[in-house]
Amino acid sequence: MKYQKKKSMVAPKISKPFKAVKKAQVKSRSKLNGVLNKLPSSIIQDDEPEFPRGGRNLLSMKEEANARAEAEAEFEKDQRLKSRLKNTLKKRKMKKVRGEGFGAGEDEWGSLFDAGIRGKLARLANRITWKNISPGMKLWGVIIELNPKDVVISLPGGLRGFVHAEDASDMYADGQDMVPGLLPKCFDVGQLVACVVLQCEDDRREERERKRILLSLRLSVLYKGLSLEAVQDGMVLTAQVKSVEDHGYILHFGVPSFRGFLPRINNGGVQICRGQLLQCVVKSIDTVRAVVYTDFCPDLMSSYVCKDLKGISIDLLVPGMMVDAQVHSQLDNGIMLSFLTYFTGTVDVFHLQNPFPTENWKNDYTLHKKVNARILFVDPSTRAVGLTMNPYLVQYKTPPMHVETGEIYDNSHVLRIDGKYGLLLNIPSSPEHTPAYVHQSDVADEEVNLLKKFKVGDLARLRVLGIRNLEGLAIGTLKISAFGGDIFTHSDIKPGMLVKAKVIAVEPFGALVQLASSIKALCPLRHMSEFARVKPSKKFQIGAELLFRVLGCKSKRITVTHKRNLVKSKLEVLASYADAVEGLVTHGWITKVEKHGCYVKFYNGVTGFAPRSELGLEPGIETNTVYHVEQVVRCRVTSSVPGSRKISVSFYCPLKG
């Protein structure tokens, strides 16, 4: 019996000679060693098993499988990074980039690690674009829109990211403590925040190559791996108010190993609520209780510079952190700075100290010049760091914008001509002037040579296409065709107006249509035809141009209808309760059928009710046998109380009108 138990643990005997088996083992082990030699040393140490006497492995089969899976995942990540850098270098060699002026059409990293190198010095400043943004990047941004379910953030380079409610805070990540309307209470439009890229999804609704960027504001993601040993006096950390106590505030840093405390006397006189994000300075550390005591003052934060802390790693570099730096070298489209002893980062031309840099901007940045800058972004995978010297951002303030999308300015001055890339102009806005950039593709309707067509000091008629909130920069166009047309911005859209739009996507819930270059709308499934449908109409093919009528425009969310009787209607549009005067004849559509009457909806969310006595039904006839939901009806306003938002209508109405 003892022999039987031993036999189950020891490998069975083999009839072949022992030497042959030993040779085969040595051969297979040599192959394995050849593979292991190619792996990083950290992986080899983790994967190399040790066999004690008796031949039994220290790890269980499950533990060994998990270890090998982790090693393979790390190895694949390393290989992907090498492949990414290799492909980028290959593409740039094929394009034969020569660096004609700033930009030179670059849309990738002009980084320190690939083709953006001239000898041992960088040639181009790092820039965040649609093509190179990836999960794990840490970015600085400004909140431009707050919704009940998400936060919209303006990112460097004019990109836009979205934060879902569950990714806005560790306290509400599981959804258990989620309170309706929490986001508007904890965040403010114009607030500067540090965020981490979670995912970049291809946006099928866009004709151009674009991505939908999903972000996280959770401190557990931003400070992943942070320990109390790494925290030092004088550090600036982002904290979230976990609870409000009598003498101060309990702070959360995203890690369970320690917490923070902010005394009420150090709150800078600012009203603070639970869930709010704060920028705090570490004053002292209680290692026994694992508590970090902090100070918070908005005026202090605008001038506080991060100290040159001992042993700081790139993982502790957080966007928004201000550092003392000096000019290391000049680049084609910016400068390189050195900071915190052994870190280097780049500043592109849109983040210099002067928001209106002329053609001689390099004269302002001599070698070894000392400047203040804030970290704009950090890419841990390539160790690339972007910085900003924008005077407003350095003071921890959002740059003000004195222009709006769609506005036209006749006397904009040309400040700089960037070869084949674009123009920098000065918009004479009030109360302060605003910098604007016009890409070469938006200079004219036909292809032109910028250097021949424009000179510094020329006046141009410019229309604002968009705004880069973080940079305080307007994006404009000089095209003559851009100054015509009825629709250019969301403010030009009015409920009830007829619009011609192109179908760009068809989904089970409806069709997405494009009204203008940057304006899109949704045609719900129920409004794709006169009757209720189970799936989209075949008329809605991608690329088809159709006529619609605007149902409503709320918070830049536009809905349209393609119901034939609504689109071709010649009657007046009812788009507000104030417009519902007695005797008005208009078209609406039924949203609910009851025994005692029908509910009718009009434009911009206006709703009315038609009692059974006003439906024109014979006695004994059921309402639902004559009328159905989504049916377009002609009705007349019989009474209206705008203050109570009540309208009564009748289906008895004159034939004319």
TrEMBL record:
SUPFAM superfamilies reported for this sequence: Nucleic acid-binding proteins
Signal peptide: none
Family matches, as SMART domains: S1
Keywords of this entry: Coiled coil
Domain S1 motif span(s) in chain numbering: 136-218, 320-390, 406-479, 496-563, 583-652
Entry's Gene Ontology molecular function annotations: RNA binding
BP terms from Gene Ontology: rRNA processing
Chain segments annotated as coiled-coil in the UniProt record: 59-88
GO cellular component: small-subunit processome
Name of the protein: S1 motif domain-containing protein
